[in-house]
Amino acid sequence: MRILGVSGSLRKESFNTQLLTAVRLLAPAGMEIELFDGIGDLPLYNQDLDTREGSPAPVTRWRDAVREADGLIIVTPEYNSSIPGVVKNAVDWASRPLMNAALHGKCVVTMVATPGRGLGRNALTDLGRVLHDCHAQVISGPWVVLTEAEDKLVDVEDEQGRLVPTLCDPSAARLATVQLNALAAAVDAGAGEHAVAPLRSYFAAGRARNS
Length: 211
What we know:
Elements: E1 2-7, H1 15-23, E2 32-36, H2 57-68, E3 71-75, H3 85-94, E4 107-113, H4 121-133, E5 137-138, E6 144-146, E7 153-157, E8 163-167, H5 170-189, H6 192-210
Parallel strand pairs: 1-2, 1-3, 3-4, 4-5, 4-6
Antiparallel strand pairs: 7-8
């Protein structure tokens, strides 16, 4: 099972990127989490750039990565009580073209890491609503909201001698494990098809009327 992991922060030492790296160690057997590092290269969505003749190379790379994945993990900070613009922009590109969008039917886990105590849930609520409107299947809570993230992520040396971010908070690690297992079960069950079925039926009915 191929899962695409995306961090919603472009900062080099981002807690969200560290959390995304850490949850890879908690993936169930058979799940491979590949990190995508190119959402900062995406231009702002502009339909003039999105034509039948093609789209900018970073867009094609992003859409292909989403389309080829069995599911997604999006780990994002909260900016101004919502999701960062870079996350919304990436979702916008992956939601087009409407009849064949890369996001259609994808099962998605969302998480947030924050250095404070009171942030995160607004971002996850807004991101879930946006993904739902893009016909993706969002795994429900309990969510991973990693508050005071600096104290809950530590670097641990792996077998190759590399320092790897690791969750040292047992409660957060349990929640992340539950979410990843739920994602695996949703992908195996084809749950994402329920999210996109009404749209596909709508287009199919329209084609039938016009034939």
